Amino acid sequence: MQKQATNRNLAEELSVGKKVLNQGKINVGSTYAEVHVNKSSLIQSYMNKHLKDIIGDFFALDNQERQEKPDFTDKNKINKSTIYYVKIISKKAEMPFGSTIEVKVKDTEPLFTKQEIESITLGLRKPIVLTFDNLAYYHFSSGETIIAGGVHEVKIGVKEASEQ
Q1: Domain 10-162 is in which class?
Q2: What is the residue extent of each domain of the chain?
Q3: Inter-residue contact 59 to 132 (CB < 8 Å)
Q4: Measured distance CA(135)–CA(57) in Å, rounded
Q5: In this predicted model, what pLDDT tens digit does every residue of 13-27 receive, in sequence order?
Q6: Which of 30, 23, 34 is nearest to 153 (CA)?
Q7: Whole-prediction pTM value?
Q8: Residues in the chain with pLDDT < 50?
């Protein structure tokens, strides 16, 4: 069973990203947010436009972290998100194979339990391959981040995903 943290229907999944056939099911690679070139942030626009070439479509889960922060505009509101620490596994990506990046998915609960993460770390379980929806790159004065609208576990191995 595929785990996912969004409500995408099959028609949407089949219309975006790369399709990978696995055990009779179609798994779709990550999707990327639509990019509008902004004259005041040309470099960030370029990064977003070529993000797929830079980081690839599929990622190996390394860890996850639940994050809760007060809203900047409403101090009584708490914004919740999950940060996924993933490794670049695409051999076609411009970033080095195995580089770790952080992808933040807002308003979602973590897909995996602490025990599942521990099993991966101890080598008791095969690595988990993930894809993300609507990936986008943001640069702030204090750093950079990659945001996604959703996350999905796909049932393919790292070797197969690395060749997509």
Answers
A1: mainly beta
A2: 10-162
A3: yes
A4: 10
A5: 333 333 333 333 445
A6: 30
A7: 0.75
A8: 1-2, 6-26
